[in-house]
Amino acid sequence: MIQEFDRVILTSDISEYSLEEGDIGTVVLVHQGDKGYEVEFVTLDGETVAIVSLHSIQVCPLVEEKLRDRR
Asked: How far is it, in rounded angstroms, from Cα 27 to Cα 60?
């Protein structure tokens, strides 16, 4: 179960915000028992790129093992 302040991975591109599959964001709000999320994406400098409303199928929980596999 994804909760507020969990980090998540984007599962598809969202071109209108220049976000790509694999981008990592932080959940800032959970909608209707995990049906959707408000997710903030930031640069490495901490500058907000976008805060986006996403359906649950558009993100998956960030698991450290998944990060290591992508390297």
From this structure: 11
